[in-house]
From TrEMBL:
<feature type="transmembrane region" description="Helical">
    <location>
        <begin position="318"/>
        <end position="344"/>
    </location>
</feature>
<feature type="transmembrane region" description="Helical">
    <location>
        <begin position="356"/>
        <end position="375"/>
    </location>
</feature>
<feature type="transmembrane region" description="Helical">
    <location>
        <begin position="94"/>
        <end position="113"/>
    </location>
</feature>
<feature type="domain" description="Major facilitator superfamily (MFS) profile">
    <location>
        <begin position="16"/>
        <end position="406"/>
    </location>
</feature>
<dbReference type="GO" id="GO:0022857">
    <property type="term" value="F:transmembrane transporter activity"/>
</dbReference>
<feature type="transmembrane region" description="Helical">
    <location>
        <begin position="381"/>
        <end position="402"/>
    </location>
</feature>
<dbReference type="InterPro" id="IPR011701">
    <property type="entry name" value="MFS"/>
</dbReference>
<feature type="transmembrane region" description="Helical">
    <location>
        <begin position="119"/>
        <end position="140"/>
    </location>
</feature>
<dbReference type="InterPro" id="IPR005829">
    <property type="entry name" value="Sugar_transporter_CS"/>
</dbReference>
<feature type="transmembrane region" description="Helical">
    <location>
        <begin position="20"/>
        <end position="39"/>
    </location>
</feature>
<dbReference type="Pfam" id="PF07690">
    <property type="entry name" value="MFS_1"/>
</dbReference>
<protein>
    <submittedName>
        <fullName>Major facilitator superfamily protein</fullName>
    </submittedName>
</protein>
<feature type="transmembrane region" description="Helical">
    <location>
        <begin position="223"/>
        <end position="247"/>
    </location>
</feature>
<dbReference type="InterPro" id="IPR036259">
    <property type="entry name" value="MFS_trans_sf"/>
</dbReference>
<dbReference type="InterPro" id="IPR020846">
    <property type="entry name" value="MFS_dom"/>
</dbReference>
<keyword id="KW-1133">Transmembrane helix</keyword>
<feature type="transmembrane region" description="Helical">
    <location>
        <begin position="259"/>
        <end position="282"/>
    </location>
</feature>
Length: 406
């Protein structure tokens, strides 16, 4: 058992946060997702396809694997640095602002890259920068949102992916715009989304209260929660990275440039559909005080969607199955974020610990490409989708083994 002997908590921790703060936080989180999702899911695959042609899966997989390694280390590092800043009284927002500026600058490196090694180096720089933005930003939720509102907050975070998907569709739909203009527009949107939270002052100073035995956390629960998210996120990363290539295998006669806007629209519709469902699921879990049944249900729905994609033979079936996957995945990931924050053993090291938990997001960016590289071809994704469905089910089942929280 991990006993939090002296957990610093805010002297206002029992007070509910305003709807305005929750929306500002969700908008800033959406800005972080907007920073990477359009680039990694559509703009980068298009650029790699232009550079590598038929070898696109190999080059793209190598790029995202190296990028994931950079992201893993950067997230832990900047989470730890924001912890140090918190203990010194400086707060986390300064690190979020630094990451925001660095992310915008890293888009320039992507624009200038004109070869395989150059685009790989640019993506590494981008991953370090965007994780400097995301690591302290995620820890702000753990610091400033009471447990009783974390389900709703987690549901609001599910808006990030549909918003980012809409931005993706808008960017690839700008047929007359070049890469530089698209990334300039992207940078402006990210800044606008993050700015309101950065202008809101942080909570009051932390105080130290005595430990309470009833909040003891089992070490095995942290491991189970981490492993469950990792298993589910393997599919999430594979879907975000290879979705365009998957639909090319379903509609082989369509050019990538023509198919990309359709995939962008599908992403938007699927994740917009998932938003109200994730919000309701989060609210229900807050009211009943139980998150595990909702988490399991989300994983089952997501696995069913992946199985449908594996069996699909035309655009409509594949698109409907992806929408089903998107709903289940959004419910699981939103509720898991709230659940995991309640398992953290020490408020003094939230940024570092969330960075370690974030390895369940970044390590799948290694596993997903490796699985896809091994099991998929440009013409057939059936085997890899079947494996991803099984991993997603296993992740949902793992959450039922957590004992210290419901």
């Amino acid at each position: 058992m991990i006993q939090p002997a002296a957990i610093p908590i805010q002297d206002t921790s029992e007070k509910r946060r305003s709807a305005a703060f929750l929306v500002a936080y969700a908008l800033a989180y959406a800005g972080g997702v907007i920073a990477y999702l359009p680039l990694l899911s559509l703009l980068l695959p298009l650029k790699v396809a232009q550079l590598a042609g038929a070898a696109r899966i190999e080059l793209f997989s190598a790029i995202v694997i190296v990028g994931a390694l950079a992201a893993s280390g950067a997230n832990v590092l900047f989470g730890w640095l924001s912890d140090r800043s918190m203990r010194a009284g400086g707060g986390r927002r300064r690190w979020t602002a630094l990451g925001l500026g660095a992310t915008c600058l890293s888009f320039g490196a992507v624009i200038m890259a004109d070869s395989g090694p150059a685009i790989m180096a640019a993506v590494v720089l981008f991953q370090v920068a965007v994780n400097a933005l995301l690591a302290p930003l995620v820890a702000i939720m753990a610091d400033e949102v009471p447990d009783a509102q974390k389900g709703v907050a987690g549901g609001l975070l599910s808006a990030a992916v549909p918003i980012a998907s809409a931005v993706s569709a808008m960017l690839v739909g700008l047929s007359g715009a070049g890469e530089a203009l698209r990334l300039l527009i992207l940078a402006g949107i990210v800044v606008a989304a993050c700015l309101p939270l950065l202008l809101i002052p942080a909570r009051a100073a932390l105080v130290v209260l005595p430990a309470r035995p009833e909040v003891a956390i089992r070490r095995g629960d942290l491991v189970l929660a981490w492993g469950a998210r990792l298993l589910v996120q393997v599919a999430g990363n594979a879907m975000s990275l290879y979705l365009l290539y998957y639909f090319q295998s379903i509609v082989p006669r369509a050019a990538a440039s023509a198919l990309a806007p359709q995939v962008g629209q599908l992403l938007t519709l699927a994740y917009v559909l998932s938003l109200p469902i994730a919000l309701v699921a989060g609210r229900v879990s807050d009211r009943i005080g139980r998150r595990k049944p909702v988490l399991l249900g989300g994983a089952v729905v997501a696995a069913a969607g992946l199985a449908g994609m594996a069996l699909a033979s035309d655009w409509r079936w594949a698109a409907a199955s992806f929408a089903l996957y998107a709903v289940g995945s959004a419910v699981f990931l939103a509720l898991h974020a709230a659940f995991a924050m309640q398992l953290l053993p020490s408020a003094a090291n939230r940024g570092r610990d969330l960075g370690l938990l974030n390895l369940a997001n970044t390590l799948p960016a290694l596993l997903g490409p490796l699985l896809t590289w091994t099991l998929a071809t440009p013409d057939d994704f059936t085997a890899v989708l079947a494996v991803l469905a099984g991993l997603t089910l296993a992740g949902g089942a793992a959450m039922t083994g957590v004992r210290s929280r419901r």
